[in-house]
Amino acid sequence: MKLTVHQCAYLSPLFFALMIAGCGKQPEQTQTAEVVRPVQIYKVKEASSQQSWTFPATISAFKSTELAFNSGGKLTSFNITKGQEVKKGQLLASIDDRDFQLKLNSANANFQTAKLSYERGKKLVKKNIISRSDFDTLESQFKVAESQYDSAKKALKDTKIYAPYDGLIASKQAANHDNVGAGQTVLSLIAAGKFSADFDIPPARLNYINQHHPDGIYVVFKQFDGAKAKADFKEISLLPSKSSQSYQVTMSFTPPKNVVVLPGMSAEVRMDNKLDAKQLDLLIPTKSVISVGDDKFVWKVDPKTMTTVKTPVDIKPGIGEFVAVKSGVHTGDQIITSGASYAVEGMKVSIWQPK
Q1: Looking at the whole model, is its pTM more than 0.90?
Q2: Over 299-322, what HEC string results?
């Protein structure tokens, strides 16, 4: 179809207007969606003031010693019995000491002779009657004889075993008139009057070992009508059990009156958490604390804006799933636990809910 000159003149203004309108149209703006990261949240709270926990425990000796002779020989006095109570310094066992006595007599004679020669030599060397070299020989012989004499005295003394402390005879590994070797254990002694209770504790309860109240931990004997004894912290293994991931703790205690306690008995360790409001700690998960050098901080979440806030904290020494906080957080604060290491200031987050 061909257009006439008049038709082209008529369409030109319309075409020009459409071109102007098309050029003036602005492109649509593309909006970027805000990134919201899901995180796990822990709400800070005080340690409970009315909780108690019990753990099965095994009684062990607070102190035990295996006793042996430094030299071998025939037992000539070994009349103690298992379970016998003994006092510190009491004679427990002895071996035939006749050969040791003869060696001591010989060593003493040599020592006295060497001593006499040495004393005479000191006078002679001052008068230049003997040379300095001859005197040095006399002095050396005296020191050797003195050392041999001291060794012989000790060897004779070691033919007897005395109780190193008040205790009970736990076991005997020999009988009277037996020949025993040097270093061979002949008896075991345990301390009297004090015992240990060994038990496993999960990480979440480790912070309650150091109680503010000294009466917070007891060893309880159900087989003796619930008799209990106050327990004191002794030691803790810092390596967890591979099977249960718990830590072995040992408490020491003095048995209750009229209760016979022996190693191997079963008992319970009861931990009472009875603290007043001023003594309660704020607890937060250990994994929520980020360490950079000596500085420690957590990521708080502002509940209104759901954004992160970096917050320095001062925590108390401890191990386990939770740590006590001195400052930096307050009851009710929300802090990030899972995902804390990836957080940045002002990051938008949402609370992750496990399905």
Answers
A1: no
A2: EEEECCCCEEEEEECEECCCCCCE
